[in-house]
């Protein structure tokens, strides 16, 4: 019995000490932040600074990641003299689009695929095997799809958007951090004073901490899903733009189908840039940067029923 009383008194002392420490820390933080709060800029100015900083950081991150990606690929530029027919296709497409002629880079990718990266006029990275796997119209449609991404700066826009939402989520987390620390500390201190340490999570302060953490987590998941959804919409838009400039939806559908068959389902850090992305389950589809391949192909076939295909070489 004496040991139980002693244990209860010890927990009360520890709880009271902890409570005083947390309250003292909260007061010191309040005193230190009060001058900062008094000299705070206007909400409009603060918003401009935060958004501007996030955009600059996103652009710098994008250019840095693009340069690093180019170095890691060990890609070589495809010279015009080696592939005049390919460049004839490229020039004809560029002439119809609001874009400078990008560099064509050849690389040994983990799977036969292609993707566009920015920087200046941009570049299109193509796996060497695609020249063997795709017919001329199919390769042209694939080029048009990647040019569409460069035309609207999709990779840059997505990187900047991610930087913005990451900054906003970080600001929310920063605002809620004192609430999380203080509410959790008070909850644990009061639970010790009551002699029931495990009850802290059921108290009002404990629930407040849990709700604050859930807000940050839900916000992070929500903005991530929004960005992934935007990425999937841009893939569909790139398909549409490719059909618009080539007039041949079936060629793009066949190119996608060929790439899908040639691809093997294994981990690849470049997958989010590819014209083709793997989607197996409903969850993986929700978390994918690309729409399901079957849906894209079916959509292109539907468009083919309403589009008269005119091969480019017959109109030149």
UniProtKB/TrEMBL annotation:
InterPro entries in alphabetical order: HtpX_protease (IPR050083), Peptidase_M48 (IPR001915)
Keyword Transmembrane helix belongs to the record: yes
Note accompanying the cofactor annotation: Binds 1 zinc ion per subunit.
Keyword Chloroplast (UniProt): no
Cofactor(s) required, per the database record: Zn(2+)
Domain of life of the organism encoding this protein: Archaea
Domain Peptidase M48: 82-303
Protein family: Belongs to the peptidase M48 family.
Protein name as catalogued: Protease HtpX
Gene: htpX_2
């Amino acid at each position: 019995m004496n040991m139980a009383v002693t244990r209860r008194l010890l927990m009360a002392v520890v709880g009271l000490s902890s409570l005083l420490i947390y309250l003292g820390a909260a007061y010191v933080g309040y005193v230190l932040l009060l001058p900062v709060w008094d000299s705070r800029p206007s909400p409009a100015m603060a918003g401009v600074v935060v958004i501007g900083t996030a955009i600059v950081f996103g652009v710098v991150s994008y250019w840095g990641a693009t340069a690093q990606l180019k170095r890691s690929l060990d890609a070589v530029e495809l010279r015009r003299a080696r592939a005049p027919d390919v460049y004839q296709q490229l020039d004809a497409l560029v002439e119809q689009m609001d874009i400078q002629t990008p560099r064509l880079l050849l690389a040994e990718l983990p799977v036969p695929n292609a993707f566009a990266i920015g920087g200046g006029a941009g570049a299109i990275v193509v796996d060497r095997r695609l020249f063997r796997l795709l017919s001329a119209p199919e390769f042209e449609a694939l080029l048009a799809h990647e040019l569409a991404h460069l035309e609207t700066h999709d990779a840059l826009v997505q990187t900047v958007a991610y930087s913005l939402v990451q900054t906003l989520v970080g600001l929310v987390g920063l605002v809620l951090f004192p609430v999380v620390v203080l509410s959790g500390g008070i909850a644990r201190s009061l639970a010790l004073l009551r002699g029931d340490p495990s009850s802290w999570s059921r108290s009002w302060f404990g629930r407040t901490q849990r709700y604050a953490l859930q807000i940050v987590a839900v916000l992070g998941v929500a903005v991530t899903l929004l960005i992934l959804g935007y990425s999937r919409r841009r893939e569909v838009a790139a398909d549409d733009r490719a059909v618009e400039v080539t007039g041949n939806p079936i060629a793009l559908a066949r190119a996608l189908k060929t790439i899908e068959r040639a691809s093997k389902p294994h981990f690849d850090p470049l997958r989010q840039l590819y014209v083709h992305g793997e989607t197996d389950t409903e969850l993986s589809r929700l978390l994918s940067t690309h729409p399901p391949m079957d849906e894209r192909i079916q959509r292109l076939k539907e468009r083919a029923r309403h589009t008269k295909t005119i091969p480019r070489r017959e109109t030149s």
